[in-house]
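Retro notes, structure queue

What went well: the backlog is down to a handful. What didn't: a couple of records were mislabeled last round, so from now on we paste the full input next to the output in the thread. Example, using Peroxide stress protein YaaA from Schumannella soli:
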Amino acid sequence: MLLLLPPSETKRRGGSTSGLDLAALSFPALTDHRLATLAAIGELSRDLDAAVRALKLGPKSADAAALNVDLRTAPTMPAIDRFDGVLYESLDAPSLAAPPRDWLGRNAVVSSALFGLLGALDAVPAYRLSADSRLPGLSLGRHWRSAQSSALAASEGLVLDLRSEAYAALGPAPRRDDSVYLRVVTEGADGRARALNHFNKAAKGRLTRALAETAAAPATVDALLDWAAETGFVLRRGAPGELDLVVGQP
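Corresponding output:
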């Protein structure tokens, strides 16, 4: 199973002082693309005021632009611990025992605007770059789409895509029967399903944690639906190529 996760804008600080090792990252075919984004963000970071504008940072988060200045030597930590948005707070990977963390290392991939596809346990620095950021001389969409899509197409088995649409566009998952996109919905009094925004991230975090803790190994969409029924998740087929995770009204 391949579980595709979005990144988060905010990152935990700190980590190992050994620095970034590009050769140790998953999906080595993306190394040249990673070097190109690192070079572009390095050029942008020569002028932090310009970087703040390009990264669309507000006054309260303007200091995040400085994270991009020394990415090759900055402290690193596993990607699954580095990100700390709503999904990752709900997942709470640092609290997981070794077997669920190993499961994440084998099955979970984080889609990053800077590094492309990252294995959950790949060691990366804190940085600031979004799917819609502008880098000098580099369009993130054109830069990543084909390379990441090719890497995902080479995967075998079930693919469950939990990414936001912006990150899914940077590297579309393969179009096949065992590759599905997850939407989080709630049902109103009229029985209609409605998409959730902020609260969908927490639901995805809970789902990811449950998959890891149960060492889930569904080979097909039907097997995933059976697993969900057994573990208390309301997961059902939605639009073609999609699954709906139904949660209560927040």
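Agreed that this is the format going forward. Reviewer comment attached to the example: The chain has a mean pLDDT of 93.
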